[in-house]
Amino acid sequence: MSSNDLFDNDHHLDDDETNVNATTITTYTQKYHTSSLCKSLNHLHIDILSEFSHHDPTIARINNGSFGSCPASVIEAQKRYQLRFLKQPDDFYFNHFTQSILRSREAVKTLVNAKHVDEISIVDNVTTSAAIVLQHVMWSFFDSKFKPGDTAVMLHYAYPAFKKSVEAYFTRAGGKVIEVKMSYPVSSNDEIVTAFKNALELGKSNNRKVRLAVIDHITSMPSVVIPVKELVKMCRSEKVDCIFVDAANALGSVEVDVQDIGADFYTSNLHKWLFCPPAVAFLHCKDPEASKLHHPVVSHHYGNGIANESSWIGTRDYSAQLVIPEALEFVDRFEGGIDGLAKWNHEKVVEMAEMLVKAWGTKLGTPVDMCSSTAMVGLPACLGIMNDADAMKLRSILRERFKVEVPIYVRQAKDGEVDPVMGYARISHQIYNTDDNYYRFRDAICSLVSSGFTCN
Ligand SMILES: Cc1ncc(COP(=O)(O)O)c(C=O)c1O
């Protein structure tokens, strides 16, 4: 049974067969719930086609990883908040806004197993969390707690914009950055753990102190699930002052338990894999009292704790932050809720990735247990993908000629490699995807190969 059967329109349940409202009655259960995957997930009461009918139907969007997606019912809820504010802004601001933000923070607190709601701040995106935490680290240099030459350790594959924040705050204040080199393709967690350990050793050399560790939970490009708990533990035992996890892609695609992970700061977007509209993220702070974080945009709540500071950064549209509970209601309509969806997307993306590498005679970039709801799929070497310009060229051709939206990664070849696969596609799976989306991608690449296309 393929996920295309999700979109079979023959079967309509009567309203009273369901607990959900009449606009979201399923259209596809009859055939679909014989599938074993579906039994575990049981997508029974959601009309996925209409929840995502605003997506361009001509495009095979297998790139949920970049910008996420937002169902119609959550967009409707967001509009209601926007209109409530526009209707009577003062009433909304004085009588409802604070409770609504608190409701969102409470929902996230439960979801990520924080100890207390004060540990949770709602911010625009992970880039904002980076500015909050790194500005705080910068002040430790100004307060002479840290010394010029003290180090930060982060993965070479850290998100480029995040690296810029480290440069803007940490390096400018006098810190030195050690990048953890990782070879690619990756074959095990041990490779990453060993590379991180070596970088920490280097960071401590010459009597320096490692002040900051930035650890991705899932790297962006290439996409790799990092053994975050193990790395946090290692940093803790090495007495790294500030352990900051960039988990931009994590919430909704892998399990997130902030107590279990144990970092000082952990941040994830909610607009990527949790169906919130752009843009909203949370920042978890293990010890908000002691760490004295401040939001870089200062407003009325300055000095009242980072959660309060973040809740008002001047007049703007806060609706994306207010619909977190509604996005979670959407998620909870699936059996197994957030975990069920993550498992389903993982299983589907692995199935589709394996189908693609089989068709193209290539390999995955990581073992399947290092994939989340995204997977890296080797592209045929004969496409001649050698550098970022080639990757961008292929991506544009796929979008414009074949209507496939997928990001392409290019790695450096190792010395002496013969006919290396250097290009990898990062495919994502989210509930709106159908198997046909991936077959279209497979056929597009096969047609480019058979026409003799090369990037260079
Ligand atoms: C690993 C990682 N960190 C940070 C970000 C930045 O997220 P945002 O642009 O929502 O702030 C991304 C976005 O894709 C990411 O993948």
From TrEMBL:
Record domain Aminotransferase class V: where: 94-364
Origin: domain of life: Eukaryota
The keyword Lipoprotein belongs to this UniProt entry's keyword annotation: no
Keywords assigned: Pyridoxal phosphate
Keyword Plastid: no
InterPro entries: Aminotrans_V_dom, PyrdxlP-dep_Trfase, PyrdxlP-dep_Trfase_major, PyrdxlP-dep_Trfase_small
Name of the protein in question: Aminotransferase class V domain-containing protein
Taxonomic source organism: Tagetes erecta
